[in-house]
# Entry
Amino acid sequence: MTKEEVQGRVLQNGKPLELSKFMWDDSANIFATSVPDLVIDFQGIANCTFTTGSSCTFRTEWGCAFKTGWCCTFKTAGDCTFKTGPYCIFETGNWCTFNTRGLCTFNTRGQCTFKTGNGCTFTTGDSCVWVVDDVKYPFAPLFIMGSQWPVNVYRPGYLKIGCEDRTFEEWGRDAEKVAKEEEVSPEVLEEYLGLIEVAKVWAKQKGWLLPL
# Structure
């Protein structure tokens, strides 16, 4: 594609992005810009590489690589590689690799590899791998959405509720103190004590009850 043809596929505020604001290498299908808030539609084109700012939306085919800022949305075919900031949403095919900072949502078809921060949500097919603290696991970290805060076992031995991050032992000691500081109702405290127990059972089954 020529740069002018690419321009018709990259919109900002509903208008084609100015030619001077992006780079396009047609020999290698490389698109690069620092501009945020783009809608990029590369349907029918595979094996592209994208470097962008934040809050972009992508629709592409297979074999693409992405390096973006935060809060992007991706809808792609398989065999793609992503390195992004947080708050991103991914809907992909198989054989994808993700390296993100956390607080992302993944909906994939399987045989994928994830390396993320905490607070992520996963819906996947089979044969996926999660890398936590440089260790590979065949299961995703636990994420439960309670009535007020998420409950997340994001690494062995650690449970995060909202912004409060503690070991299971510390939660056993501090849960009521934290509830008092947050001024939660007795009903909410009872709910989260129950969720802590659910998380503890899950962590014990997975060998994640104690920090490594």
Summary: DSSP finds three helices and 21 strands in the chain.
